Amino acid sequence: MTPRVRLSGVDHTYQGRSGSVQALDRTDLTIQPGEFVSVVGASGCGKTTLLRIVAGFVRATSGTVEVDGDQVTGPAPERGVVFQRPSLYPWLSVAGNVEFGLKMRRVPRAERRETARRYLELVGLADFADAAPYELSGGMQQRCQIARVLATEPSTVLMDEPFGALDALTREKLQAELRALWAAEERTVLFVTHSVEEAVLLSTRVLVMSPRPGRVILDLPIASDPADDLATLRTSPDVLAAAEKVRAAVTAIH
User: Fold this and answer.
1) Residue 32 pLDDT > 90
2) Residue among 81, 101, 83 nearest 92 (CA)
3) How far apart are CA 208 and CA 46, in angstroms?
4) Would the pLDDT of 52 be above 90?
């Protein structure tokens, strides 16, 4: 089976006014189709740089990056990105935002409307299709962004701390919705987060990165059933033990 994502010997160095900063060091990573892989580590360890390189927003200084066997040379429709803050177009309706990527790909109007309707139902926004983005709460705007990304049917979904700016209750609700969407859609997810608990609850694997220059120092499989609800998983002995391993790895490198 061709890996969904493969990084081989990836280094990245930023050039700034005060000199160069190495963000990633000899990073190797393989993600198989359907996996949900979370990346945790201290601020500045290169988590977001890693995600942006896979997205094609940033070119690696050295090494190779492949998605579905093709070398990444820039952004592409098969890699959808969900940012920390919703990047919705204020002049479009909620449905118009979800349809936008499809419209750019010249999908016929009837088809893109039906696709938007389906994904708005999946994220619980069917009743807000005609609303303006500013009429939605922060959590609802983030669900709209997730629907917009999924509507283009990318094979890989890249998520950069998508719930980091939300209150605790909204965050827990969207975690449950994301897990259900992942189980139903069978997409490959690469998820960056600062929360150990969030990483362990949502993922099939958790990667821990070292302080800058970042490299993977722990790659931990998570044994959980996608059908399990998060309330059950929060008290699962296996999940709690995995969280302690991840937390110990993060703590050990500070």
Assistant:
1) yes
2) 101
3) 11
4) yes
**Token code pair at residue 250:** 């993060």
> What's the whole-model pTM score?
0.92
d(CA 252, CA 254): 6
Beta strand 188-192 pairing with 36-40:
parallel
Q: How many residues does the chain have?
A: 254
Closest CA to 135 of 181, 173, 168, 97: 97
Say how far apart CA 161 and CA 47 lie, in whole Å: 10
Side chain identity, residue 144: C
- Decide: 141 and 88 in contact? Cβ < 8 Å: yes
Closest CA to 140 of 103, 111, 177: 177
Tell me whether residue 210 is in a domain. Answer: no
Secondary structure of residue 224 in the 3-state scheme: coil
Rounded CA-CA distance 160/57 in Å is 13
Residue 121 CA, distance from chain mean position: 21
**147: containing domain:** 84-153
Q: Flag whether 141 is in a domain.
A: yes
Cis peptide before 213 (omega within 30 of 0): yes
Share of the chain above pLDDT 70, in %: 99
How many domains, the chain? 1
Tell me how far CA of residue 204 lies from CA of 26, 46, 228, in angstroms: 23, 21, 13
What Rg do the C-alpha atoms of the chain give, in angstroms? 18
In a domain, 161, yes or no: no
Q: Is the pLDDT of residue 120 over 70?
A: yes
239 located within any domain: no
Average of per-residue pLDDT across 39-49 = 90
Rounded CA separation 232/248 (Å): 23
pLDDT in tens, 161-205: 998 878 888 888 889 888 888 888 889 999 999 999 999 999 999
